[in-house]
Amino acid sequence: MKYITREIERKFIKMNSFFKAVLVTGARQVGKTTMLKHLAAGTNRTYVSMDNAMVRDLAQRDPVLFFQTYKPPILIDEVQKAPELFEQIKIMCDESDEKGLFWLTGSQQYKMMERVRETLAGRIGILELYGFSQREKNGLVFEEELDFSLETLQKRQQRIEKNNVVKVFNHIWEGGMPQVYGVDEELRSEYYNSYIDTYLMRDVAEVGGITNAVKFRRFLAGCAALVSEQVNYATLAESADISAPTAKEWLKILEGLHIVYLLEPYSNNELKRLSKTPKLYFCDTGLCAYLSMWLTAQTLMNGAASGHYYENYVVMELVKNYAYSKSKINLSYYRDSNAKEIDVLIEENDTIHPLEIKKSSSPDRREVKKYGLLEKASLKQGNGGIVCMCEQPIPIDEQNCFIPSNLI
Fold first, then answer.
1. CB of 271 within 8 A of CB of 336?
2. Do residues 269 and 201 both lie within one domain?
3. Do 121 and 150 belong together in one domain?
4. Which of 128, 154, 173 is the C-terminal boundary of a domain?
5. What are phi and psi of 385, to 5 degrees?
6. How many folded domains does the chain comprise?
7. What is the 3-state secondary structure (H, E, C) of 358-402?
8. pLDDT of the chain along its 408 residues, tens only?
9. Which of 128, 155, 185 lies at the terminal end of a domain, its last residue?
10. 117 and 152 within one domain
11. Which of 73, 178, 270, 343 is the most exposed place for a label (fewest CB within 10 A)?
12. d(Cα 334, Cα 267) in Å, to the nearest integer?
């Protein structure tokens, strides 16, 4: 398979020239190792994986001897399996002025990140890689930063074919795992089944001591049934026959493994009585569709849950866009005690960009009236609109547009 350029490469190369160590985290099988091996091609960088039991044993037992054997510049895969290395990496960073000595990948986030932050603060840059975005599959890297202005959207529109609901749902159903890109329905199904059985079950057993595979699979299916909705721990607990506190713990583990993404509710001192419950999305829509037994892209597109999957897709395209972009933003959603909701709020430079998400190609323009709910907030309201299946950007008013979902 031809290598697909990842949007995060730009940011990785920049951080590599600034930090002595760079860590790429993310779910298993999203392409962390493939990307770093591609970037290391033609250089003298040593590659070593902590999946190799003998190498891992050496790293855990004698980090000094490990680095005498495998000298920097080095790429260490699945570094979370040998956290004993972090202390020695710190010493070696402090002894050298050279940048980019250590490239690290890791999947199990919480415990590893605690160790990394304690030991390597100030010496390491941390990036998060997700599965393929639709832009990456299309071989597109947009030059313009996404600001939701009509001008930016029109520039992007010139570089891409028109929004197409069949293509969008093929992408949603297929998901972003590099291994399932372009394979048929049978192989995709087998891949996700073994992904859960091998990687996921092993990881949740290691991280959270979860050993009941039947209950855990039911829990995963319960999460998939709640996609794009507010988290309901009682419902999740019921689906797997576990207690609500256990459901909360399991969901936290899935978030740490980058299987689910929890979109936090907007909070603001000037606005009272806002929801405190996050919304649940899957980092990979293909895994979610597999868990809910949507056997083809066609049945998913025409099914009752298609709007929820479309929302999940848009939210994750935004998450990926901002994970790889230059700007730091805060992503949230708005819901108040009157059940008034705005799907996504993007806060950037004291400006708030409100977005509604609709699968329709011609949604009701009055949806943007809801954005008046934000007038009491202390932030300036910027460009926003309705992300939908329209074919080109069309202004609604001075600040808002109908935004084709393939432009984000």
1. yes
2. yes
3. no
4. 128
5. 150, -155
6. 2
7. CCCCCCCHHHHHHHHHHHHCCCEECCEEEEECCCCCEECCCCEEE
8. 789 999 999 999 999 999 999 999 999 999 999 999 999 999 999 999 999 999 999 999 999 999 999 999 999 999 999 999 999 999 999 999 999 999 999 986 667 778 888 889 889 999 999 999 999 999 988 888 899 999 999 999 999 999 999 999 999 999 999 999 999 999 999 999 999 998 999 889 988 889 899 999 999 999 999 999 999 999 999 999 999 999 999 999 999 999 999 999 998 877 767 889 999 999 999 999 999 999 999 999 999 999 999 999 999 999 999 999 998 899 999 998 888 999 999 999 889 999 999 999 999 999 999 999 898 888 899 999 999 999 999 999 999 999 999 999
9. 128
10. no
11. 270
12. 8
CA gap 290, 399 in Å, rounded: 38
- Check the CA dihedral 217-222-223-227 and report its sign: positive
Same domain, 209 and 124: no
Owning domain of residue 87: 9-128
State the CATH number of the domain containing residue 13.
Answer: 3.40.50.300
Token digits for 198? 């091998």
The candidate with the shortest Cα–Cα distance to 406, out of 389, 385, 386, is 389
Tokens 């992904």 sit at which residue? Answer: 195
Cα separation, 199 vs 297, in Å, equals 25
Asked if residue 150 and residue 86 are part of one domain, the reply reads: no
| Residues 111 and 176 grouped into a single domain | no
Cβ(329)–Cβ(347) below 8 Å: yes
pTM of the model: 0.95
**SS3 call for 152:** helix
